[in-house]
Amino acid sequence: MVLLNCLLSGGSAFAQERTILGKVIAPDGGGLLGVTIQEKGAQNFTTTDAGGNYALTLKSQSPVLVFSFIGYTTQEVAVGKDNRINISLVPTNAQLNEVIVTALGIKKEVKKIGYAVQELKGEEITKARDVNPVQGLEGKIAGLSVGANAEMLTRPQVVMRGNTDILFVVDGVPINSDTWNISPDDVESYSVLKGPNAAALYGFRGQNGAIVITTKRGSKDKKGWEINVNNSAMVEDTWLTVPKSQTEYGRGTNYLYQYAQKGSYTYAPHGTNGNGTYGGVDVLYDNSQRLQEYGPRFEGQLIKQYDGPYDPTTGVRTPTPWTARGANNFDKFMEIGLLNTVNVSAATSGTNSDIRMSYSHTFQKGRNPNTRLNVDNFNLNAGYNFTPRLRLEGNANINVQYSPNIPDASYGPNSYTYMFRVYGSSDYDINDLKNIYKGPQGVPDLTQYAPEYGRENSAWFMAERWMRTHNKLDIYSYLKLSYKLTNDINLAIRSQVTTWDQLRTEQVPSSANLNTYLSWYYFGWYGDYREDHRNLLENNTDFLATYNKKVSDWTIGANVGASSRAFSYKSSWATTKGLSQPGIYILSNTQNGATFTWDSKMQVYSGYYSVDIGYKNFFTLSTTGRVDNLSTLPSGSNTFFYPSVSASTVLSDYIDMPSAISFLKVRASFADVKGALTSSSIGTAYSLATNGYVGPQTLGNYLGYGTEDVTSYDGPTYYNQNGYSITSYYNGGTSVNYSTNLADPALKPYDVQSTEGGLDIRFLKNRLGLDATYFRTVNGPNIFQNTLPSSTGYYSENANGLTTLKTGWELTLSGSPFRNPHGFSWDILANWSTFRETLKSIYGGLSTISLNGHNYKVGERLDAYYSTKFVRDGSGNIVYGTGTNAPLVAPGQSDLSNRGLIGYLNPDFAFGINNRFSYKNFSISFQFDGRIGGKIYDRVLYQGNNGGTSIESASGAYGAARRAEWNSTNQGQNAPVAAYVAPGVVIASGTPHYTNDQIDNLKSLTFANNTTATTVQTYLSSGLGSNVDEYYFIDRSFVKLREVNLTYNFRLKPGSTLKGLSVSLIGRNLLYFAKRKDFDIDQYPAGYNNSNFSANGTYPDLQSATSRRFGANLNVSF
Predict the structure, then answer these.
(1) Cβ-contact 21, 57 below 8 angstroms
(2) Which one, 435, 594, 714, 986, has least CB within 10 Å?
(3) Which 3 state secondary structure label does DSSP give 64?
(4) Cα separation of 697 and 691, whole Å?
(5) Domain 12-92 coded CATH 3.40.50.2300
């Protein structure tokens, strides 16, 4: 028996170790190189050689071989008695057979779609994530740009084909999104519908395209609960972009400074009255000076300073050494930032039901002290099949945002960028101010301790006392009942609610320094308190009937539906305009408070259809139509129809292609979508009440400091309604003003006609694919405000009057040049896009028009920017005014039509390249993206030159002249001798004549070198800064190493409790390539906003410095 058992065991072992030989054959009869042959259920595999041959020694008793190769259908073959297995693999167009979510949540096969749409899996942005989930899409979708924003809770600018009003849709239903109310861990996929051709079924809301989000549902394997935990932790420690400041000169003007009451300038020897004098009066609070940083050079000389010994009895302040003790103030003050996100989800599905629950918590600790953000998100998806035909499903998403303090980076006295980099001096140590009420200047809870009280605030005082809170509850949900009437007909009714409620408060402490131009501000005031409360409620209810039928060689898919949209918005904004008692932050504690309210409502009724007809594999023809009736336009013009048509055909299905081409599809589409008077975002009730409508937001008397919060809206603008507003006071009482814009009862919706063509081609047995799209869009006549003579009693009238033409290209390269699931693989996704938009015609046959400070010309690009330029001679030399050393300014440049072309604001093109390399269980992916070309105004450089803090103002020719001027003062004993002579020429003889901004009679003039000197301060802050914008427009190009992700996927044993385990090392915003790095150009994805005919980033505001992020991600499933 023992011998028999041994023989049987030996025989079994011999059977298990037999070797199978064979060949894998391609459709053309040749062998396939690189096909993977794996013994199913075992870590035993091999690959074919150049002839398609293989050999594999088996390990199991009942082996099954799995043959897999990219671009071909995977096949399984059970091993019998034969030791040789030859097999032919069949090519597959799996990527083109995939189903993608389109408008209204309708699923379609990719190969049958006739317009541009691109899908991204949600898992692609959950590792090296951004705190804002939408910013994770940057660089991954051709034609879509997202302005990566470092500001906490600021909505990034999302631009698609140059348009900024992009619709967000979740599970087929539009939502109102600030882009912070979406948890990326709950997203199954993003489908980006590019332009009106793809999003026409959404009506005027989809005229610029849509981002359609499909959320995750119950587990697919129906084997009980699936639990997933994903944790991402990242730190911010080093700067990617940050303004740099000179530390050679301190605060002051004309090389003079002392902490004193402002008076007449007098240069005096040391020991007489310090470094010069301002009237010779020492004071406790230096609140009359708003100084630049053109003061004395740091050489250790004795100067009266804020922290010098002060005798309250005699009122005399003792001078102390003048040194750059605060050269590193910015880095000393800023802290290490932290971003941590935890998501826990549980999902299951059964025969009749499915459910998924998810909770996410995001915590961000800002780099500014005492700033943090908490975002909690709960998502529930559930469905139940009452019968095989009747199903009920729903989704609820609850998002809660809270921050005790949101930093404000905009130009002003409560901005850290402003106080450290624009007007920040190095003559004080920031850590000396940690005791915010240190005496003798500081008085607890009343007066801050600060280096000066005219322009800036103590940064520590702001961090601890100037609080800007944020509280927001955001909910979107839907309930859907569907019934399968027949095998071909499905009926569904759905009702959705999106609502949010936001309260922002601002506690401005006693002694906070504001801009002194505010008529109601005075030194020593008790501070202010503000409340900004906003509430939005929207309901969308729709019915959709779906029909799908295959008749012989024909396929028919049809959808018919109707919907109702009810929109309501309410807001209030209130200020104390000065507290009566310090430190009590309630609206009733007011000296002269004011409250403003603003409400809006809108109703839209719609009907729509879509029909898809296909014949064999030859073509698919699709058409859609939608009718909207909305309340924002005059009766008779408020009902309109949107048609669209598209066609696609897979040529490779019926035409023989070269061997290199595996697949070729061509498509074309046309859409005609209307637009109405709506806006995607909204400002404060104060601005709305004083403007009378949703329009350009301006800082009025009450909004005299800080940034106006702009939130998502997508509601009516009331441009075309004459109304009353409270804007001023008369004889001590409130006055009511009538609108200065004349409404037009015959105003019509504007028209957007878009034509699109494209192809999808796959090469090398589907290893690489190229998707190309060309689009042409005619937009108009757009609604704009035409200027009226003042004699009419109005300033403007609404009119249909501007028509534009936009053309562009989008390219996407994707594929897997190398694919071996057990070895080395390489996946690539590359995107490239460009567009141009020109002015086609103007109302009344005009050739030019000026709107919103921008000059437009028929035939010219809309992003062409005209402004003040250098006047030059025939050799390109800059012409200066005789005896002024200031650039010559052509007369009449206050008129926009007389200004010169600075350049084009939009990038020439945008791109993104994402590579993923994997070997066995390791993978590394990284993404470079950027925008090339275009112009943008460098406000940091302008303000830094004006304030004397920029590196440029103290280096090169400026630095040499500044040093010479300082030396000429003998450390403040004498007035400086001007030393800077700008390179260029002056007009020696003749009288110039100008066309636009340039001299047109150069031959009748003679020129001589400029020899006039001025001080650097005069040249940079007065001559250059106020006269020539050209100097401060820089190249908009940049490239970023956006993200890096190194991942190890653990190989788990069969039957293990764990279903998945991976660990990743991640980095984000790691490298930045640009000509200047004093601000992040990435924040401004487009230079022109065609929704309101205005330039973007022409004079961009100050921004927080951008940081690099490093961290790790852990993902566990069980």
Answers:
(1) no
(2) 435
(3) strand
(4) 8
(5) no
Contact 241, 1072 (CB under 8 A): yes
**CA 430, 435, 441, 444 torsion: positive or negative?**
positive
Residue 414, φ and ψ in degrees, nearest 5: -110, 25
CB 356 within 8 A of CB 397: no
Euclidean distance between CA atoms 397 and 377, whole angstroms: 7
Please report the pLDDT score of residue 281 as a whole number.
67
Amino acid type, 136 = G
Q: What is the mean pLDDT of the chain?
A: 86
Tell me the per-residue pLDDT of 197-254, one tens digit each, with 9 for 90 and over: 998 888 888 889 999 998 888 766 556 889 999 999 999 999 999 989 999 999 999 9
Q: Are 365 and 371 in contact (CB under 8 A)?
A: yes
Give 47-54's long-range contacts (Cβ < 8 A, gap of 24+): 47/820, 47/823, 48/23, 48/24, 51/23, 52/23, 52/24, 52/25, 52/26, 53/21, 53/22, 53/23, 54/21, 54/22, 54/23, 54/24
**What CA–CA distance (Å, rounded) separates 296 from 252?**
7
Distance of CA 535 to the CA centre of its chain: 24
Q: Which residue has the tokens 């990284």?
A: 926
| Residue 737 pLDDT class (50, 70, 90 cuts) | low
**DSSP conformation letters of 263-327:** ---B---TTTSSSSBSSS---S---S----B---B-SS-EE--TTS-EETTTTEE--EE---TTT
Between the CA atoms of 787, 789, 793 and 797, what dihedral angle is there, to the nearest 10 degrees? -20
Residues 6+ apart with CB under 8 A from 443: 437
Q: Contact at 8 Å (CB) between 39 and 57?
A: no
Copy the structure tokens of residue 668: 């074309």
Task: Output the DSSP codes for 563-599.
Answer: EEEEEEEEEEEEE-SSBSSTT--STTSBSS-EEEEEE
Q: What is the DSSP letter of 688?
A: H
**How far is Cα of residue 996 from the mean position of the Cα atoms in its chain?**
36
User: Domain boundaries in the chain?
Assistant: 12-92, 937-1033
Instruction: Answer whether 682's CB lies under 8 Å from 694's CB.
Output: yes
In this structure, how many other beta carbons lie within 10 angstroms of the beta carbon of residue 107?
Answer: 12
Reported as a pLDDT band with limits 50, 70 and 90, residue 42 is confident
Structure tokens at 942: 């302008």
399, 181 contact by CB (below 8 A): yes
Residue 1083 to residue 1065: CA distance in whole angstroms: 26
Contact call for residues 871 and 968 (beta carbons, < 8 A): no
Give Cα 159 to chain centroid, integer Å: 8
| Residue 136 CB neighbours (<10 A) | 26
For 380-391, write each residue's pLDDT tens digit. 999 999 998 999
Q: Are 142 and 811 in contact (CB under 8 A)?
A: yes
Distances (CA, A) of 821 to 39, 47, 78, 883, 918: 14, 11, 21, 76, 9
- pLDDT tens for residues 386-418? 998 999 999 999 999 999 999 888 888 888 988
pLDDT digits (tens, 9 = 90+) for 107-137: 888 888 899 999 988 888 887 888 788 888 9
Residue type, 859: G
What is each CA distance from 154 to 149, 180, 576, 709, in whole angstroms?
A: 7, 9, 25, 8
Asked if residues 741 and 796 have their Cβ atoms less than 8 Å apart, the reply is yes
Strands of the 36-39 sheet, one edge to the other: 45-47, 36-39, 64-68, 75-78
With beta carbons less than 8 A apart as the criterion, state whether 108 and 189 touch: no
Q: Are 503 and 531 in contact (CB under 8 A)?
A: yes
CB atoms within 10 A of CB 199: 31
Positive or negative, the Cα torsion across 875, 878, 884, 890?
positive
Instruction: Tell which residue, 301, 308, 250, has the closest CA to residue 282.
Output: 308
